[in-house]
Amino acid sequence: MTEVTATPDLYLSIDSLWKAFGDFLALKNISLDINEREFVCFLGPSGCGKTTLLRAIAGLDLQTKGTVMQAGKDVSNLPPSERDFGIVFQSYALFPNLTIEKNIAFGLENTGRSKSEIAVRVAELLALVGLPEQGKKYPAQLSGGQQQRIALARAIATNPGLLLLDEPLSALDAKVRVHLRHEIKELQRKLGVTTVMVTHDQEEALTMADRIVVMNHGVIEQVGSPTEVYREPASLFVADFIGEMNQIPAVAGSGDTVTIGGATLQSQQHGFSAGMHVVAAIRPEDVIPHGDGARSPGAPDEIETPENAFEVDVAEMEFLGSFWRCRLRHEIFGRDELIADFSINAVRRLELAEGKSLTIELPQSRLMGFAPAGEA
Amino acid sequence: MTDLSADKLPAGPAIKGKLSRDDIIMRLGMVVIALYLIATLVFPLWAMLSKSFSTFQFDLGAYELQISDEQGKYSGNIVTPAQLNAELLVLGEADLIAGSDSRMGLTQFFPDFSFRSPVMYQIRNTTETGRFLVGSELKTGTDWLELDSNTFRRVQMRPVKATGLGNFVSYFSTPALFNSIKNSLLIAVISTVVTVTLAFWFAYALNRSCMRFKGFFRLVAMAPILVPSLLPGIALVYLFGNQGMIKELLFGASIYGPIGIVIGSVFFTFPHAFIIISTALAISDARLYEAAASLRSTPWRTFWTVTIPGARYGLISATFVVFNLVITDFGLPKVIGGQFNVLAVDIYKQVIGQQNFEMGAVVSVVLVIPAIFAFAIDRLVQSKQVALLSARSVPYQPKPHRSADRFFLVYCLLVALFIVGTLGICQFAALIKFWPYDLSFSLTNYDFDRMDGGGWGSYYNSIKLGLFTAVAGTCVVFFGAYLVEKSNGFKTGRALFQMFAMLPMAIPGMVLGLAYIFFFNNPANPLNFIYGTMAILVICTVTHFYTVSHLTAVTALKQMDREFESVSSSLKQPTLKLFRRVTVPVCLPAILDISIYLFVNAMTTVSAVVFLYSPKTSLASIAVLNMDDAGDIAPAAAMGMMIFYTNAAARIIHLLVSRGVLQRTQAWRAR
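^ Those are the sequences you sent over. The predicted structure of the assembly is below.
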């Protein structure tokens, strides 16, 4: 191993990591840097390798090839007990026959701390996770959310440099999950501990992470901040996996145009050579409604003939509480429908209803071109 | 970000993890227990197998003789016993087949031999490896040895060892021996059909009807587990034997033989079949019955399309377990089999009766085949049963049905009468002074020290064996199961260990016991010193009952969160601390179950230990066998019932301890 010059805040560095289970490659040449105090989420569908990667970082299941550097030290082949991390599992993995206090104290024993020091630290941690009175209870007497907080307290008890969270919220009710999401994020910010969380829940990743690592079939599809990953997906997979995305078969034009069913539309720069089959993609909320040609009172001034604008029929409308999801038809889409999310105001203003028609605009900056799935 | 070229693992060696201290400790532990299983199971079985293929034969051409005249003058004429035999035809081909300990004199080749004659003899081996005895002195080498007539009559040839199928050939050419295969299979099949049928309806009544006294019936059904398998044989002798109370009911047929073995086998295998079938019936899904009812299925049709398929794995499993128990059982056919030979008893007769160890090994090999077959099918079926369980199943709640409930109550009462009656007869017999002549009650039959069977000492030995087996066995089994279940990597080692752990189930007790003789009684074996001690009985019993204990431990361990070890190592705590603080306390109920299982079986087992006890380490179950053999049937019954009461007491203590321990250490289970 050559000498590594760690930038001041580089904490975890994964280089060319491979993991093979027999002939199956679970991780293919993964390289990733994680900075100190950063909260990183591994996001992807089940079987994408995200948990395998986490377990390799922990040393629980060793990678087949590649290196893991933690705090400037090569830990690639070390057993978990010789690495520096705390871990929380989906199942909480609390010791059922030990009280909450003893669970939290488990890792504090044999570390040269006196009994009273341990007791002080346990009380401190219980207060930190907001369960100061529960120390004498057994895990089974707590709710799932409370148990997960205890597991968290146990994991951070020894002040590890790295906190690993393996789908920590997946076993919880939706309400508890949202609440705990926020709490874990708060706690992480307060402690400043570098954290890696594995999740298949995009909402969880978007709300909690500083950076998201989107994985699929053992490779990293994209690394970026939540907004980057959402607004500028690097591949059709990322675009499809995170949020909703219209996917329209198209043919690439020169540089910044795509042709959909004969109509040429302005798009972002896509880098495909003209004539290639691509997928034109736009998020439902990026579709701009313009009414049926007539200006509506109170609407912002519009360009006379906006680019990428055309008239569509409203085939179906679905009320989803805070907005309307509309299925729009146009001959260029063939038998497919364009999905657009319109605000309640817009629907009221434009007096939209099933069967009516309206002009929509697909803004050039939000219309993207991707290689079709399977060709990536 | 996607590297398109990256879908081939680069060449070069995979990363080798550094082993932590825990990894090393756990691997060492696994190696130690695997070595234990190899020394106590694999090697003995290997010794037995090779014994069955080693043949011994007298080689009459291997010696040369010179005979002087009455003046002591030699003519220089050298003869071999082979030449003499060719002239005189003293021995046929079959007479030359021998065992390892056989010896044969030479005087039979000299029709006018007299030990008072002044004729002198000279003898030598024709090869360096030849052997003969003069008295008890072994002579090898090719030097001539001169002997007078009186000494020459004490010359004995020793057989030559070879490897081959000779033992099997002679086994299958002896009808008296290979008929036992047919007998054993016949008995096993009939007993299995009867037991499984009886147990199915008993379990059905307990799980699917609303009859009363279910707890009582459940208790009674389990009672036969607490006694040696030969005890029902003694009861049958009292009922139907030559002086039996109700022998007229057999209309002249003899209880000594297949009838007795079948009835006794039904008695001692009933609980095993009942547990398995009852478990299968208990997990059936009520939703299927609701669906059947809504489709207007008749009860008969529902029974065949829902009940039986739901319990089919249980039924198949019970069938093979019972089959295995019956075909490998030794105690019962020994007591009640009469002239009806079965395989397990043949092993005993060959080894103890005729000292023909090679033939004993051959019969063992023959017996192992159906046992392994039954075992393999049972394992296959059980692995499927797991997949049948569904978390969403709704337990079936039987509804009262007056006539059916009454029918089942009568049925269960009859079965309970059979079980309780059998035990009752034994207890009655034990208290009667001298059946059938003096029917007054007395305790003379409990004066075991005056009987031929080891006396009260054997009873205390049994308790000692039970306790040692329970303690040592539970430790070895549970720790071994933990290492297999929870250690990382080392895949081949773990798979091999699993295989060793499953093997004892397929090995009949008689076979194991005999294998132990071959292995441990070999003076060249450094472990020879444990032969004839309590230690070998403990080791043999632990090994004999290893599999069920191991499976119990593994089941309990599988219910533990897989990630406990990960959490513990991330907290930098030794795995053994986790084992002591969490694993053992959480698994305590299973650990107690294993220990009572081992204790009860150590108290009742006959088959494996019958070859291994010494006068100092005689056991209660062996005493039952030996007293029965000696005609002291009443004391045998008394000792058998002592085993029953001891096991019943042990069960009660186990229940109380479990409950107490649960209350103290398992408070966390309550929400």
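Residues 244-370 of chain A form a domain with the OB fold (Dihydrolipoamide Acetyltransferase, E2P) fold (CATH 2.40.50.140). Chain A touches chain B through 53 residues (CB under 8 Å).

Shout if you want it in another format.
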